[in-house]
Design brief:
Low-confidence stretches: 1-28, 124-141
Number of helices: 10
Order of helices and strands: EHEEEHEEEHHEEEHEHHHEHH
Oligomer: single chain
Distance between the termini: 46 Å
Mean pLDDT: 74
Length: 300
Amino acid sequence: MAPLHQQPDSDNDKRGASADSGGASLNVGCASTQGDGSIAVATGPNSTIVVNPPNQPDPIPYAHIKQALKAKYREAHITLLADQQPIDLDKLFVNVAIVKETEQEKKEQACQRSHAPAAADEQAASSSSAATSSREQTSNLGILQHYEDLHRAKQPIDLAAIFNPRQQGDKTINPKRLLMLGRAGIGKTTLCRYIAHRWAHQDQTQQLWADRFDYVFYFPLKELITHYDPTKHYSLSEIVYEEVFKPLELTLEQARLFCQQVILGEGKNNVLVVLDGYDEVAEARHPVVKLLLEQAPNYL
């Protein structure tokens, strides 16, 4: 409880207040808030009680957080494993397509049916010495053609438009959570870095979703989960504190308020969480990954 300080105007007033009250509780007349946040309560004609305010949390430096994120993402080069020469992110070509789930399922089923006879032929050929390398090459070529057909882009879309409303049958949907698919090495991580970089771009004509998302958080999941014990449960504010607020010398309480007001509150539609490498950590079922998937309002 906040300390109380009685402030009588004089000793006579103090004695008069006590005598009039006869040892009973004081009658409160009116209260007013002071400039410092304290509350002055009138207990008599010449006496007040001042209630000190509780400790207020430090204000959240929203602009500072946003600028720090942008400065981090503005790194204009990325090094790929296949080519150690740094590549300018601004010069990347990004090809994105939407795959409808029902159409994808049909193509997968057709691919499986077409592979069934081929699989039987290969099994019979493996028991026969007459199997030749040319047959194996033909089989591998057929598998490759099926794979390319399965994943070939059918509905190209501009990257800037992937969160735009779109028609699905007779309904209009507003995408909030998108899953990016692509075979290993095709550039999913590079695309995630590219998205964060474009959002933070200094050139306003090159900025991506600047009018849609106030904050973009890029989390490389494979590295992220190494910082947290998989047997423990964490809150979103703890993750945001460790990954964003702590390096900026901000407090856990500030991170908690930020999550409450922005990520989970009224500003949640203006926050994008980029989760890089989900396919590499999905089987681990790490609680941090599960938490981000459940609580991130918009993610990619």
